[in-house]
């Protein structure tokens, strides 16, 4: 009996006391192994690209257009962040992709996806872009302009604040959705020039099927890595800096976000690789910066065969250098046929705007099997000694300088734009600075006597909220501040004659929604009044117009005391800004708006389109 009891007890004891310690250790071990396995698998699984649905591909005319999803996270960031280490110093190693080296100096940057310049977008013609702008930079009201895209189906996606949309407040997301309908090398940038100069700008390339490209025979390679974005770099402009009359000098020119300064001569430079014997199509966009001086671009010992301007094809021009104003783009072809090596790509600001403002990059011949070189390969192109410039000046008379008026478009001026135009609009503008005391300079900017100001609500999407008293009068003003709108009937053929009365410097204007044919351009060397200009234009003594094959552009450099005549057919209804590109922030008074068509002609924004106007205007009291 007793022994039975004992046995039972022993059994009980052994059942009651399993080894808990060991069991939990085993479980922990098993769980750890599983967890480690999961981590290994996750670690080695390639993550889908977070920001881009990559539309950078070979374009084919029979392919369906793609939907290109882009997420642009806008932040205040800095150059030389931790990840850079000492990569901008001598023997500091390569800079990691996450490092913004700029010109090797520390500075705040306004970035999209922590990149400088903003990531280049490559799409095919007719792709649909869906761009989420996630705005995380306090104190900036943003809108992004897609330069070069007419936005005919979606005028409310043009990114002009208070015209086509309410500027986006910080900590919100705005979705741009539009069709890339205009082929060519373009740009996208913050509407505010200060924000663009602080980094929020990049290249935007719309390619077409090689079979549809009329100049395909001229090149072998059109690759995304041969896109060049040049920008001015210097002191941050900040929202208030734009208000001062004297803009500080820029300090360097960056090529694809890289350059050097005297302080850091070892900062990395951009390189563009080529193989001997191939012809490369390069795409160049100049985004400007705080000062936005015109720049001269060249590649040592290489000829640039310029084939497009602002995305429009021209009769090819073989030149040694190209001079561009802010916002202009060119495509050129480089025949890589020099003694393989490294050649300098140079940009320099025009001296009359700022001396000693330069940037460099490298053209690198990849070390593939070297071809036998003919001794005179180097000489062939030395015969070319010409410059192409979009900036008209006295130099145009020289045989070695090809100016805009001497360049021929690849296509003829449409017949309806050759004569009997429906409307001619004369637009005098005057930007002048005056020394008002030994220390102070004051500036005035007016177009037609009106100082441009933005309306309180976006004209296209909330036009009804804008009081009639905010608009400028039709007659020339007396320096009044108002919303300057010029009305054009839908479908009219238009000639816009713009002329500079101030004579301070060149001026650059960019038209949204259209590109125009530059039928006339000239320096007048002094101020003329509207009556005289009108008379001269009607008599045909103002210019020797090119009504056969003038170049087509969307950005124009109006020479100092100069006049230009721009023609287009007003077939894109909406509110389109003629933007003064030298403005360092939102405006300095020279901008104006073209209202094409009537409210009923406008493509309506979707009903849930974000709106301005929950704030009570300053003239109301809540109590
Ligand atoms: C341009 O503006 C300045 C400053 O307001 C003025 O002194 C000058 O007379 C103007 N020039 C013309 C041609 O209107």
Automatic annotation (TrEMBL):
SUPFAM superfamilies: Cupredoxins (SSF49503)
GO BP annotations, alphabetical order: iron ion transport
Keywords: Copper, Membrane, Metal-binding, Oxidoreductase, Transmembrane, Transmembrane helix
Pfam families listed in its UniProt record: Cu-oxidase, Cu-oxidase_2, Cu-oxidase_3
GO molecular function: copper ion binding; oxidoreductase activity
Membrane-spanning segments: 20-44
Keyword Metal-binding recorded: yes
CC terms in the record's Gene Ontology section: plasma membrane
Ranges of residues in domain Plastocyanin-like: 102-209, 247-366, 468-592
Domain of life where this protein originates: Eukaryota
InterPro entries: Cu-oxidase-like_N, Cu-oxidase_2nd, Cu-oxidase_C, Cu-oxidase_fam, Cupredoxin
PANTHER family: FI03373P-RELATED, MULTI-COPPER OXIDASE
Family: Belongs to the multicopper oxidase family.
Protein name in the entry: Laccase-2-like
